[in-house]
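Could you join me in thinking about how sequence relates to backbone shape in a protein? To get us started, please write out a protein record for me. Would you write everything just below, so we can both look at the same thing?
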Amino acid sequence: MPARRIVVIGGGVMGSAAAWRLAARGGEVTLLERFRPGHDRGSSYGTSRIFRLAYADPFYVDLAVRSLPLWRRLEEETGRQVLSLTGAVDHGPAEVTDALFETLTAAGRPVERMVPDQVAERWPGLRADTGAVFHPEAGRLHADDAVAAFQQAARAHGADIRHGVRVTGVRVLDSGGVRVVSEAGEEWTADAVVVAVGGWTPTLLSGGASALVSGVPALRVTQEQPAHFPAADPLSWPSFIHHPGAALPATGRSTDGVYGLGSTDGVKAGFHGIGPVVDPDHRDRTPDAATLGALAAYAERWLPGVDPTAPDPLTCLYTTTVDHDFLVDRQGPVTVLGGCSGHAFKFASVLGELAASLVHGEPGPSRFALGPRPRPAA
């Protein structure tokens, strides 16, 4: 039987992971990416993303556990180290940290409770709030290297990786396949397509005379602005999440907490999911002075190991669903991989596997399905 022909649209971390897993299954895979390798226009660039198992929801703990051996397989296939386990500290209200401790313990993963003084003693650059937990199976992923590794591994399995190709149309054919058209007039006919275009998902799925698939949930595209702070030996830092509700206000810029981790560019810190709604093709990437000032003030109080006077800001895109679950589902020959909601990078290896499974007719998680999503709590 001839290999299935599959076009993957989008060469960020999700599309590249899907191309790897599809090619590894013997598919005839073509990956089309609009921008140059290593571009900074979307959600997958830079030197650092958090890897962690700590969620209060057992579903996400299990998903992260499943992703870990796939990250290691990627490293083995490519000879690239993309994941460094430095551990992670979650701190904030005791009810939050207790829930994380209980969920990780129930999953059989190593975790320990800590008090702020213990955190400060072990990591003098980090100040903790009220309660804390540390779990060693966490750390950082190098974002640019991860994308490059997925594409390298996909090529090794026979995938054709093409940059500088802007897809402008996708049409489901009466024969059951798909036709993909580029801005330059190139066409590809395939048995299946995977759409993994991040902040461009709403436009591509709704373009043309009719929607490509039905039941696409509301997707909110925002521009987020973390910053890197100078620090001594930033690569020794654990990843950290500061949950709001204790000493960190649960209103204003800290509504969804603060995240951070070490990187080759310094210690990265950012408010989670507070940015303005943007059009990914027409956005002002000028740093927002108020956000930068608030981050510097946060660093001065909570990150004594960094220089809060010299933040280096950057911007990236979040594409968020109402419930913050992802969108990984198939209708006919179209598989959608998106809605990553600012916390999916760590899962990219397993989400690529899930997308490959969907293309081959296997079921995916019902909570990632196309269809109605619950409204956020009032």
In short: The chain has a mean pLDDT of 94.
